[in-house]
Amino acid sequence: MTLRSRGNAWLLLLAMALSGSACAAAAAVTIRTESYPRPPYSEATYYVYERDGKVICTKLKICDKYENCDVDYHAGAFLDPLDQRNGDPYDVTAAVAIPPGKRAKHQCLAKLVPDAL
After folding, report:
1. Distance (Å, rounded) from C-alpha 116 to C-alpha 109?
2. Stretch (H or E) spanning 83
3. DSSP 114
4. Does residue 40 have a cis peptide bond before it, meaning omega lies within 30 degrees of 0?
5. Portion of the chain with pLDDT greater than 70, in percent
6. With 70 as the cut, is the pLDDT of residue 25 above it?
7. Which of 23, 25, 71 is nearest to 46 (CA)?
8. Is 78 helix (H, G, I), strand (E, B) or coil?
9. pLDDT digits (tens, 9 = 90+) for 35-86
10. Mean pLDDT calculated for residue range 103-112
């Protein structure tokens, strides 16, 4: 290996390392859920999308006992007044990171926060 080709190899490795660190520095988008009871025999589930500790969009899914559901999307944080009156959610899941390749499948991100894709 000549000195010139060795230098090119190091430049290539450096470029790959820098591009990898730039990808790693991109903010992670996470999702968590909060569930609230709705009378009679219904449930409201909020899918909360966060980036850098801030809520970027919220998906509200309200289902009845027959699994008929209505879905709404809201930019930023959202909590329906009915659920605010109910108090704390009865079920909360931990935040899970969404891989960049799967973010486009999430309608809340695709419709309201396209820069998160």
Report:
1. 7
2. helix 81-86
3. G
4. yes
5. 79
6. no
7. 71
8. coil
9. 999 988 999 999 999 999 999 999 999 999 999 999 999 999 999 999 999 9
10. 96
Which pair of structure tokens corresponds to residue 46?
């909020």
- The two three-digit tokens of residue 84, written as one number: 């605010």
22: which 2 tokens?
């730039």
Residue with tokens 């998160």: 116
Are 33 and 43 in contact by the 8 Å Cβ rule? The answer is no
pLDDT at 22 over 60: no
Q: How far is C-alpha 56 from the chain's CA centre?
A: 8
HSE-CB for 108 with a 13 A CA cutoff: 24
Tokens linked to 104: 């486009």
Alpha-carbon distance values, 26 to 21, 107, 116 (Å): 9, 20, 10
pLDDT score of 14: 40
At a CB cut-off of 8 Å and minimum separation 6, what does 12 contact?
Answer: none
d(CA 68, CA 91): 20
